[in-house]
Amino acid sequence: MELIDAAGLRDACELDLLLFFSRHPRIVLSSEHLAAYVGYEVARVARALDRLLGAGLLKRTLNHGAPGRMYVLEVDHVEAWLEPLRRVCATPAGRNALKVLLKQRQSQNGERPHRRLFRVRPS
Amino acid sequence: MPERDLVATGIAGLDDILSGGLLRGSVILVEGGAGTGKTTLGMEFIYRGASEFGEPGLIVLFEVSPDKLIRDAALFGWDLPELERQGRLKIIFTTRQVFQQEIQQADSLLLDEAAAIGARRIFVDGLVRRTTGDSDVGWNTPEAFHLLAEGLQRERLTAGLGVEVAAAEGGRAASALPEEFIADTVIQLRLEAVERAVQRSIEIVKARGQDYRMGRHSFSIVDGKGIEVYRRVQAPRDLAREEAAAYDTSTRVTTGVPGLDEMMHGGYFLGSTTLVVGITGSGKSVMALQYIAEGARLGERSVMLTLDEPRAQVMRNAASIGIDLKPGIDQGLVQLVYDRPQEIEIDRHFLQLEKIVKEFKPRRAVIDSLSTYGSSLGPTGRGFRDFFHAVVALMKEHQVTTLYNHENPELLGMSSVMGPFGVSSLVDNVVLLNWVELGDTFRQALTIAKMRANAFDRATRECEVVDGRGMRVLPRQIPPGATRRLAFWEYYSLVSRSPERHVAQGRT
After folding, report:
1. Is residue B261 within 8 Å of residue B254, measured between CB atoms?
2. Does the beta carbon of B45 lie under 8 angstroms from any beta carbon of chain A?
3. Contact (CB<8Å) A28/B107
4. Which chain A residue has its CA at the smallest distance from B108's CA?
5. Which pLDDT tens digit goes with each residue over B57-93?
6. What are phi and psi for residue B298, nearest 5 degrees?
7. Residue contacts between A and B (CB atoms, under 8 Å)
8. Where are the beta strands (DSSP E) in B75-136?
9. Largest CA distance in chain A
10. Which among A23, A29, A61 has the least Cβ separation from residue B66?
């Protein structure tokens, strides 16, 4: 739970995106490709990306006219808790346990799932 | 002639094959099937550039995730995250489709990223090659490749492109495809079956605007080091080096075998090549050990390269004939080098030998034995012949007087010096060691069959190997009373398997 708090995670999609970015800290991908990699719907990925961007964990560069966007994990912001998070999620059991916790927290807080918290402007 | 702006790859042995490196701004295709080492080569090219040559680099990946690349790099001791922290490296993950569209943009994000760190090198891993008959779909068309090359050239990046080639093509397409015409340099990596083993090979198929060594060279991927390329042993040698191998007919190198120097009028010529031929147990290794021991006695450096016996066994054999090699080894006068003959990688092996010759600078050398090389490389193919040519040239260039032991399978006599190996014309001297059956005894015979530029004793002489004392050639005339045996001179046809006594002697 401390890790979830430190990372500011709200749902499983955010967790999986963050883990993906930890393995691929600098990517150029379209939203569709990114969604395919992490296995969620495009709209849900977009919302999770907005949250991560808004929290300053990611930096995104747009390139008008091209389908790819560059995402860079802001390592300085995640160094303290990213490795422990990766270690916990290194096994299916650990990752699932975190997802259960995230779900529980969403229920306790009465949050609607996948709520958009930040409005992100393209950089 | 304008000076070429070469980019050293930093990969051990590769720059030698490329005659110094790659031309700056080149587009290099690194082609090969799965597991041939494309990613490792590309990764090392970027790593060496960033860490050793002050050339930041970009790695673009489609399939391998960056954290796996970082993990694999760590096995070689390459700290990629540290280079990223220092702003000398960026690793970018993307898809082929996005990459194709991205690279064509005037304000390409990828090229912006390269410019941001002042990148001079880029490696793009995982392009898939269009094979003949494929429809032109997606990014993978000659036109798209041409645009990619243009984009890279615009930035003056030296670019390596890892291209997957289907295994069915055997690592090489039947005909060149358009990408190869567009690229400046084409490097092909292969896994080649050698009997039941597999060896890695690298070939520079094309290198526009620069000289390079053609043919398939071997390479290894070594933990803690990276790629090591071994120039193929049959690579042509420079004329200047050939001239350095001029034959010296004034300096002799003593044999270490009592009686043999007299037969040769002083010993082998400096830098000469001597073949010692005989069946197992006929004394070839003993002769070799005495040759090495003689060098140590005279303060001359010697190297013995053996495929037949490990070092400890060689030293034990030497001790049995009264030779203690340890002091010579301790004093830096003797080197014993053993390499396992099974699955020998001949290019690597030759490079090791070349390094010893250049650094240790021996005056004497023994290769024990050619027949084992023949068994490993095959006696009739080019592998053995090319290796032997290269070793002889190397030794002559460095004026190392070298004995090559060769096991002849014939128990009695000798009808052919080298059988199917057929390289005896390369050697200067040939010494035959034979068993001769006289009465109920096998006696040991030594014949000098060839000695270039030298008048030598052509008689077949008896020799003996005595425990604790080694080999010696007996006098032609046995002193009266010294033995009850007849001397060899009292027979004829000793080496042709049917020795007979001279009737005229009338002795029984």
Report:
1. yes
2. no
3. no
4. A63
5. 999 999 888 999 999 999 999 999 999 999 999 999 9
6. -90, 0
7. 62
8. 89-94, 121-128
9. 43
10. A23
